Every structure is written in structure tokens, then in C-alpha cells.
Amino acid sequence: MSTTSFEGPMYYDAASENEREVPLPSAPRIPLAPNVLIQPPLTRRGYGPPLVLLVPNIPGPPPIGDATPTTEQIDPEPIQKWAEEGFAILAIFASKGESGEWSFAKALAEGLPKLKAWDDVDDYEVVKDKASLIVYDHSILPDDFFTSTLPVHVLVIYGPESLNSVKPHPTIPTLLNTCTPSPMVSSLAVPRQHKFYSYENQADHFFCFPGGPGYDHHHADISHARSLSWIKKKMNGPWFDLEAIWEEHTAHEFFTRSVAKTMGTMVAQPYVNHIPTITGGVGRRDLTAFYRDHFIFSNPRDTVQTMVSRCVGIDRVAEEFTFSFTHDQVVDWLLPGVPPTGRKITVPMNAFVSIRGDRLYHEHISWDQAIAYRQIGLLPTHVAFQNGDMPEPRQLRLPTSDGTDAAKMLVTVGAVKSNQMFDWGLED
Asked: Cβ distance 202 to 183 under 8 Å?
């Protein structure tokens, strides 16, 4: 697949019809009791299967305001995150001792029927009449939880192994996300119908809650992806066409060339990281500015993006591609501050794209910056080199590709002879 960027405008026009802001999915929370609420799905689709969350009373991070979001602010708390994944949420909070609070049993009995309002009646493959359940806070579990028959089809439990309630349910497929303060990963034995993961150097099992004392972005992201995979496979949904979502996003970047439509394909607080040049944007405000001022209209007219391979997972798209263009204008995100050289360049790239529900959460894009510099003449083939064992400097041939060979090697197996650089090095 090739994507050529010649159909859209070459500059930003705030008055353009294509730059009308695309509204984010909006679904206000519905309180049922002091400790129970419903959060409808926060997707463009607007419906999804039921998911019950047992959550602690942990205050979230402060509002983003006008500042660049912190790591904790860019990562939504689990209720919003799972709603963005396409689930209808029944959230049960730990008791505060307030009048009118519902028990776990009453919350299921009264709350689950209300989630049917967001059922997809035409989706006959997704499990009906049963919910998924994620246990973050064990204080909400009743004493007879592991001996009761529950309207639950699949279960996820977070917690330290020291808790008696961190164990598989005898009749419900269970994923255990356990934490340990030790640097060694635990190896808890569970029956084959269940699954177990351990998160080392993690003393607090509320590590998924931004603003909490044990919050860990890395573990939160990995455990969320594992839990999502477990639930989707057992519930048979909700499924989204991740390739179509990714291609819609890139079409607005390179064909429509619309900042508003590009951002309309992303969650409330997304981010983009171009790793080699440390460019991109974190949060909706900064990423919008990046797309407007440094990316969408900074790509030359003859840009071609050619897909080489693509792998689609539960919530990720991984893609290898080549990115080609004539350097006839400043390309901020790839060659920051470098004036046009008029040279044609081709750069092999990798994209790792996280998709939450039916919208993008983040992009991690990587490439070899030396390849780009070589092709525009910024990086020489040889440099003077001298170490302590050398009385005089010698010429060192830099072990970098000129770009065309690297692109050929990525695109066609055997097109370039391997290991040629083994014969390079110091020259007289």
C-alpha cells in the first residue's frame, strides 16, 4: 500500500470546512447509589458489552489545564479507560460508610440490567447476559464470592499474592495480575483455564490508578493490555477494525490534510512520539499544535509512504514502511531546522500504534536518523578517528547506510548483500 500526499492543502486554513472541530464521544456518568455509577461507552460506536469494575476511592491527578500533561494526566483512570475501550461500565466503589450505599450483590442485581441499554442487539457473537468483572479493590468482595454463582463470564483480579482473595474463581476463567515488592517475578501456579502475570518492584496493587501512591505507568499499560486481551477473547468482543482506524488516521494526515479530522480519530488525551528527533506532542492541546505547525503541512507534495509489513494485535498495529520525499521544504519532524536540499530521500521506518476502542491513543515512530542525514549530505561517509593506541588520526568509514540500500533490504529479501560493513572501519 502506498500513501501519496498530494490531494490536500499545503497550509493550515482555520476557516476551512475540514478544520471544523470533531466532537469527542460524550456520555455523562449516571449515579445509581453513593458508591455505584454507570459510565456508558466512550467510543464513536456508542455501545458495548457490560464490564463491572470494583474500584478504590483514589483521587485522580489534578486537571490538565493549560500545561502539558504529566504521565499521570495522560493516562486516564480505569473507568474512563475501559469506557474508551468500548465497554458499558458498572463501577462499584469501596465503601465510605455513607447512607444508601449498595452491596456488591445489589449493585449487580440492580445495575447490570441497566447496562442492556448499550447492548448491540445485532452482534450475535459477543457473550450475552453475562458481564466481565475486574477486581481492583478487594474490600468490596463479599465473603462468599468464590463460592457463589455469578452473572460473570470472565474475571480479572489485581492484588498481592498475600491476599487470600488473589486466586482463581473455581467456575470463572480468571486472569491474576499480581504485584510483588521483590525484583524477582513471581511464579504462581494456576490451573490451565486461568492465567497469571506478576509485576516486580511493585508493592501497591493500585498501580493502575493515576494519582495513587503506587501508580506505575509502565505496569499500568502492560497489565491493561493483558487484561483487555483476556476479556475480549473470552467475551468475543468488543471488536474494532484496527487497520481501518489506522488508515483513516493516516488518510487525514496525508490526503485530507486536516488537523481537526486527524485529531478526531484520537482519544481525549493522545500522544505521538517520534523517537529519533524527540518530536511529537503529549496531550490534545500540544499534539494539535504539533500536527498543525510541524507535521501535516510540513510533508512535501511528493511524499510516498509504502507499507512493507503490518501486524495487528488486540489493541496495537505494528507496521514497517518506507517514507520517501523530495527535500524541497523544511520537514520539521524528521529533519528539524534543516533548510531544503532538493534531494530525494527514502527512510525505512517502524510504527507502533496503540488503539483504544475505535480511536488512537498513541504512536511511537522510529527510524535510523543517520540514514536520513546521509541522504541529504549532512553526514559524511568518513571521519577522522584517533584513540589512545593511535599516534596519528586515521580515517574511519562510518557504519551507516546511504538509505537506499537499507530501504531495499527492508522491501525485498536478498536485494542487498548482507554484512558488507564488516569490511569497513579504519582506512589508511
From this structure: no
Q: Rounded to whole angstroms, how far apart are CA atoms 90 and 94?
A: 13
CA distance 282 to 399: 34
Residue with cell 460524550: 26
Contact (Cβ atoms closer than 8 angstroms) between residue 350 and residue 335: no
Residue with cell 531495499: 408
Q: Is the pLDDT of residue 4 over 60?
A: no
Say what the pLDDT of residue 1 is: 45
DSSP 139: G
Q: What are all long-range contacts of 174-179, with beta carbons under 8 Å and residues at least 24 apart?
A: 175/226, 175/227, 175/230, 177/205, 177/223, 177/226, 177/227, 178/205, 179/203, 179/204, 179/205, 179/207, 179/219
Question: Domain holding 161: CATH number?
Answer: 3.40.50
Distance CA(307)–CA(186), nearest Å, equals 40
Arithmetic mean of pLDDT, 273-279: 98
The pLDDT of residue 134: 98
Domain limits for position 393: 382-427
Q: Are residues 123 and 137 in the same domain?
A: yes
Within a domain: 26: no
Put residue 56 in one of left, alpha, beta given phi > 0 → left and psi -120 to 50 → alpha.
Answer: beta
Q: What are the CA-CA distances from residue 141 to residues 103, 197, 208, 230 (Å)?
A: 9, 21, 19, 21
